[in-house]
Specification:
There is one protein chain. The chain is built from eleven helices and no strands. It is mainly α. It has one domain.
């Protein structure tokens, strides 16, 4: 397989898995085991492609929040997004600086996939027993911010899964509303995380000797694939539960534990 084709596939995998509740980290770990490990810069750039994708999907919603700031409903929602992001930054930055993060190797990621799948089944069951509610509260905003920090510490948890299902348990149990809030919060969160990682890499002199044609191709693939996946997911969850994703996570995690070397 050529390096360009491998880069294309990695971009597609990132776009497919970044916003589904299945863990992009786990899938890229498996893919790079077979397609070859990539640089930190490569991984930062393809994640940026996924962020661009979700920003394009929600471009009208983002514009309405900016242009409608004077309207209370838009202002309150925007402030709750900012609060969730602020909580993530407040707790996430010290965690990053102190290096509190599990290694991105098979065993912790596999267990995170399995336990995350069980968590999804339990969270959705509990949320469905309550009256349907689509309003984002201040409590939801704070808990979503904390959930993103947890997802950053434990690779394999999935940022989108952590945010969506903590929101549902906290009362935002209408699936499309929970997904929308989680995705919108993810835009500044992921841009900030990618920007911080890029800055660290630049200061360490780690931007040289990169195959920029492969980086560009993978970025484009992640953007295009991510756009399609987010649009599809938002339609799918209007009438379907997340059960299939939970089962998939459990099966994938078990397969990783059984068939891949623990230190890979």
């Amino acid at each position: 397989m050529t390096d360009m084709l491998a880069a294309l596939l990695l971009g597609v995998i990132e776009g497919l898995t970044e916003f589904l509740p299945v863990s992009s980290t786990g899938h890229l770990l498996i893919a790079q085991h077979w397609l070859g490990a990539r640089s930190d810069l490569f991984n930062i750039v393809i994640q940026a492609g996924a962020i661009v994708a979700v920003s394009l999907v929600f471009r009208e919603r983002l514009w309405s929040l900016l242009s409608g700031w004077r309207e209370r409903v838009h202002r309150d929602f925007a402030l709750k997004l900012l609060l969730a992001f602020a909580v993530t930054a407040l707790f996430g930055l010290p965690v990053r600086l102190l290096g509190w993060e599990f290694p991105e190797t098979v065993t912790p990621i596999a267990w995170a996939l399995v336990l995350g799948g069980v968590w999804i089944l339990i969270a959705e069951h509990l949320a469905e027993r309550r009256p349907e509610r689509g309003e984002v509260t201040w409590t939801v905003a704070v808990l979503v911010g904390l959930a993103q920090v947890v997802a950053g510490v434990f690779p394999g948890v999935s940022r989108s899964a952590a945010a969506i299902f903590i929101a549902m348990l906290a009362g935002l149990n209408r699936r499309p509303a929970a997904a929308e809030f989680a995705f919108l919060v993810g835009i500044p969160t992921m841009f900030a995380a990618s920007g911080y990682a890029f800055l660290e890499l630049w200061l360490a002199g780690g931007l040289g000797n990169e195959a920029w044609d492969q980086v560009a191709l993978s970025f484009a693939a992640a953007t295009a694939t991510g756009f399609v996946v987010v649009k599809w997911l938002l339609g799918y969850i209007r009438n379907h539960r997340y059960t299939g994703f939970a089962v998939y996570r459990i099966i994938l995690g078990a397969a990783l534990l059984l068939f891949m070397p623990a230190g890979s």
